[in-house]
Specification:
The protein is of the alpha/beta class. It contains 7 helices and 11 strands. The chain has a 6-stranded mixed sheet with strand order 6-9-8-7-10-11, sandwiched between helices. A 5-stranded mixed sheet has the order 3-2-1-4-5, sandwiched between helices. Helix 4 (154-163) packs across helix 5.
Amino acid sequence: MILAIDVGNTNIVLGCIEDGKILNIFRIHTDANQTDAEYAVKLKQLFDLYGVGAADFEGAIYSSVVPPVNRALLGAIKAVTGHECLVVGPGLKTGLNLRVDDPGTVAGDLVLGGVAAIACYGAPAIVMDLGTATTITVIDKDGCFRGGAILPGVKLGMTALASGTSLLPDISITAPKKVIGTNTVDCMRSAAVYGTAATIDGMIERMEEELGYACQHVATGGLAPAIVACCRSDIVCDDDLLLKGLWTLWEKNRK
């Protein structure tokens, strides 16, 4: 069994994976102010609570888009499991050809999404991650990472709208009954859900037109189910896509 760690801007997702099967998933808040000891205590408490034996891990693999967290969290994982993490980044074999201007700037979560999409759904693929940011990335028919687009996350955008105006409130990200809202909250929800869904549909159409062929469509991230339900494109929701990508990279690099 391995421990797979995906550090996002809002949450850290930890998965216990054995032979490609995800046995447990834990989520803790991303906090750059936590020390390695504090993270170690959290990990130990989680493992004890769910009956996971730290000694059962044969290794760990780690991806992060929050550099200030890395030193403390990597130290905590070593302290609890006894293993140094494989870290997604330069030097790790991915099998993914990054055909972009500067491959060194491609975030680990985008690499994971591309690797997992190819492994689980095949290429070509358009991969959407709807979390703190909304990312849309393209894997071409040759399995190459071609780039994509980055938008403000749905919740982030709505929070900014509420904080930057006097009359608009914070809202939950749920679809109203109608696209044409008849009150302030429903107008905001319509834009958040139907507007984002329309953006995704439009970006898929334009990206496929630019490529010259159709793709598989895969979405992940905390807000994916709410948004994808309102998309007109045929999109598969896979909550565990990035953990699957970590397992795939572990298999490529374990030796």
